[in-house]
Amino acid sequence: MSAGGSGGGAKGGYPPQTIMAIGAIGGLAGIYLGHFMPPAFSFFGGLGAICAIVWGADAVRRVASYGLGTGVPSIGMISLGMGIVAALFGLSVGGIAGPIVSFIAAAIIGAVIGVLANKVIGMGIPIMEQAMVEIAGAGTLAIIGLSVVIAGSFNYGDVVQYVVANGYIALIFIIGGMGILHPFNANLGPDEKQDRTLSVAVEKAAIALIIAGFASSLHEGLMSAGLNIAVGLAIWAFGFMKYYGFIKRDAHAVVGTGLLPSAEELQ
Amino acid sequence: MIDALTANILSMVYIIIGGVLISWSVHFVPVGGAPAAMAQATGIGTGTVQLAAGAGLTGLVSAGFMMNVTDNLPLILASGAVGAMIMIAVTMIVGTWVYVYGVGCVPSSAKVKVDPITKYRQDLYVSQGTEGHGLPTVSFVSGVIGGCLGGIGGALVYYALIEVGLAAGLTAGGSSTVTGHELVGIAAMFAIGIFFVNAVIPSYNIGGTIEGFHDPKWKKWPKAVISSFVATILCAVVAVIAISQLGGI
User: Fold this and answer.
1) Domain residues of chain B, as ranges?
2) Residue B156 and residue B236 in contact, taking contact as beta carbons nearer than 8 Å
3) pLDDT tens digits, residue range B62-97?
4) Is beta strand B108-109 parallel, antiparallel or unpaired with respect to B132-133?
5) Among B70, B85, B160, B206, which residue's Cβ finds the most Cβ atoms within 10 Å?
6) How buried is residue B7: exposed, middle or buried, by Cβ count under 10 Å (0-12/13-18/19+)?
7) Per mean pLDDT, which range of A133-142, B92-101, B140-149, B179-188 is the poorest?
């Protein structure tokens, strides 16, 4: 069974390097801006998470196009599984360089799992190693970005107290995972187009920012929570309208063929 | 950093054993994937990861519940195993009701001619064009074994992470504040992360559907177990360091 994917590489759209640069640089820049700016500007962490989620969705799109043998959601789950382990490790030892240490740790874990998947398990997907590195990195940045939205900084103590101890981390885990796994899962098929898939990623990531914004009201107060939610809503509306436009572009025309001819007309 | 690793060597061994058990357990769970959702393959109609995670995380919760009252490792493991077994058994029995009374098909396996446990003929009842449907007895038993192993694995990982935190000077007692408890939260999240990594690796090894321990694909398990062993070593090192750092803040 080849669930999801046509068995070949993904085609068309922006080259992987562009998306990779947007995800890694945009993600880290957003996280650092959210950390250093006053708490009211913690939505920058969410913007970083959006860049990372778009990158993750593009990496899932490229690797899952080969057909994973199991559903697309599995790769989103492993992304966030590796991401959460690497993110908390990096923040605990890295201090101010925490997100970068997390990112490197995620790349190492991802590379090892990618090599194991190809060499030991024998999946035979040519881009598996690279894709696993990308997916782990994107998951890590998404988790740290959304944590910055809730905690206002990425200090290990703050993140543990305001995000992990009260359980918001579980929320981040699953909405970040949804942002990474859902876009390709929803759009896969022979007519899958990169811009349509990635517009869903933007939209899902904006929903993640809105939900993280709600959660941030506990620690950051209603003002900054309101700002987080407003930014998220604006991006969500933009992403959703874009997606709707792409659907109308890609949808096939429905042509009326009339009713079946009656018995008299056939004679 | 290095002394944190050497001081917690036993906990790391527990985490690695737990990860390997989770990886092995996934091979026992009868996963049908999308074909089973249309009653065209034997097993439960959803993906490997969802099933393993559902059962394993329930095991984690029940193990955590037991840790609330005792620190006796066998009792905690038993609690985790029973929780996961109940979860997977309930999922399978409700699935069977849907297949039998809703879809209207006989639980039957296409991989074996005779059910190894009940000795009932299987091939006569497999609908044409399908690879079996529903959950025959052998798949059900296999799934419960898988839940047991997964629950023990998840509980072992969680227990080891809590022990690392206790060694670093944190407390794991009951907390009455709204903001919750640092050690429990972080140990649970690391356990979930390690669980997902070890649930996805075997699902790539299985590649879609498996009926249980009677399926020919089951014999591929050493590959996934070796992969999980290596991956869990990495995760264990990272998790032990992160939790040890928690003692310093």
Assistant:
1) 2-246
2) no
3) 888 888 888 888 999 999 999 999 999 998 999 899
4) antiparallel
5) B160
6) middle
7) B179-188
Please tell me the distance from the alpha carbon of residue B36 to that of residue B147, in angstroms, as a whole number. Answer: 19
For A251, the domain range is 16-266
For chain A, what percentages of helix, strand and coil (3-state, to nearest 5) are there?
Answer: 80, 0, 20
- Give the 3-state secondary structure of residue A121: coil
Tokens 């690796």 belong to: B201
d(CA B182, CA B57): 19
Tell me: the pLDDT tens digits for A119-166?
888 887 888 888 899 999 999 999 999 999 988 888 888 888 888 888
Contact B33 A71 (CB under 8 A): yes
DSSP letter assigned to residue A41: G
Predicted confidence (pLDDT) per residue in B236-246, tens digit: 988 888 888 87
Q: In which element (H, E) is residue B108 found?
A: strand B108-109
Interface test with A, best of B20, B210, B238 (most A CBs within 10 A): B238
Give the gyration radius of chain A's Cα atoms: 20
Q: Between the ranges A203-217, A249-263, B58-72, where is the mean pLDDT highest? A: A203-217
Total domain count, chain A: 1
Strand partners, B121: B114
Does residue A60 sit within a domain?
A: yes
Find how far residue A199's CA is from the centre of its chain. Answer: 11
- Is there a domain that residue A25 lies in? yes
Structure token digits, residue A119: 């060499």
Q: Distance between CA atoms of B47 and B30, rounded to whole angstroms?
A: 10
Paired strand residues for B132: B109
Any domain includes A1: no
Q: How close does chain B come to A92, measured CA to CA in Å?
A: 5
CB contact set of A20 (below 8 Å; sequence gap of 6+): A55, A134
User: How many Cα atoms are found within 13 Å in the side-chain-facing hemisphere of A214?
Assistant: 9
Tokens of A215: 């959660």
- Whether A46 has a pLDDT exceeding 60, the answer reads yes
**Closest residue in A to B236 (Cα–Cα):** A85
Q: Is the torsion defined by CA of B54, B56, B60, B62 positive or negative?
A: positive
Inter-chain residue contact B201 with A117, CB threshold 8 Å: yes
DSSP state of B99: I
Query: Residues 57..86 of A with a Cβ closer than 8 Å to B: which?
Result: 68-71, 73-75, 77-78, 80-86
Question: What ipTM does the predicted assembly reach?
Answer: 0.83
d(CA A131, CA B219): 28
